From TrEMBL:
Membrane topology: Multi-pass membrane protein
Entry similarity comment: Belongs to the drug/metabolite transporter (DMT) superfamily. Small multidrug resistance (SMR) (TC 2.A.7.1) family. Gdx/SugE subfamily.
Molecular function per GO: transmembrane transporter activity
Top-level taxonomic group: Bacteria
Protein name: Guanidinium exporter
Coiled coil: none
Amino acid sequence: MAWAYIFFAGLLEIGWALGLKASHGFTRPLPTVLTLIAAALSFWLLAQAMRTLPAGTAYAVWSGIGAFGTVLLGIVFFQDSVSAGKLACLLMIVAGIVGVKIFS
């Protein structure tokens, strides 16, 4: 169950990270509220996962999912720049997440 918590916590991290951009510095009410809710739920799920998983493993996977998804969706929704180097680095993040999971 802890791995499911981490997975959903990572998805929510993507949501709140993108929500920070969409809230325009917390000046837009709806994105601000949704961002804060997503952040709170993400941290809660991470904390639940850390009840059984090692802290370093849980945090590495959570932040890796968040980083990967935020960069990818930033490219799609906010027209963030894309390059071969950036895509290669995203693949390394995925490799790191898989490696941490395999060796945990």
